[in-house]
Amino acid sequence: MAESRPAKPDYYAIAWRMPLIVWQGLFFVGPLLFMLAMSFFLVKNYRMEAAFQFSNWSRMLSKGFFWDAYAYTLWLAVLATFITSIAAFPASYFLAFKASERLRRWAIFFLVIPFFTSYLVRVFAWQVILAQQGVVNAAISYLGLGPWQMLNTQFGTMVGYLVLCLPLAVILQTFSLANIDKRLVEAAHNLGCGRLRAVFTVVAPLAKTGLVVAAVFCFILSFGDFVSPYYLGGSKPPTLSIMIVDTSKSGQQWPRAAVVAIMMIATLLAVAFTAIGFAYRKRGK
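RE: above sequence
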């Protein structure tokens, strides 16, 4: 019986993968390892000194204000992901199944346009809209309502998250739904399946990967966002991103800020890997 020879490495495939590996190493893995090492440094006389002490970790993780900010940030991200996914689905369904190819292209074009403008500029525009004497309160005043406090509230933060995530969610969901074989939906209707039931039993399972990926992007963007909770939410209570800024400013405590950042990254990685694993898991397993 002939001995099996070890497979030769595919240098062509390795060559094509190297740019991505180098990029991730230089701009993600490298800085992440440096930040992890910095979390063990000490600050003395407003200067960081290399050390290997767990005092930063024990101090931050033992404080109630850290876990309050963690729970609040997680809650906002989950809520924003849920609202965005639900709000985006009807528009995505219409573009994928009802709209013409021309209308779909124009819709995707207009959904991409907001990304041409800085997210910070868009949030400043929403400050004018949601202000006490802003556009919304001016409009509802004609109905004898208001004025309502919308800035510096959780509602304002949620509006900012939707501004950030909703166009991207609609685009990703539309691409996923557009790849579904429409004959399967028609077959479900022929078998007596109603419109709503067909969405849950046929459309959603077939588009599960795209829907989950869109939700993951929403969660990642919302969980790590600084702009909306600061400028629209008033930074009270603070989220983890705001806590990083406040911690680094108080006595140049960059090591403690690194602890907060690492906890955020660990949460995002855990959520992303869990969600992607669920998205690509085959039915029946």
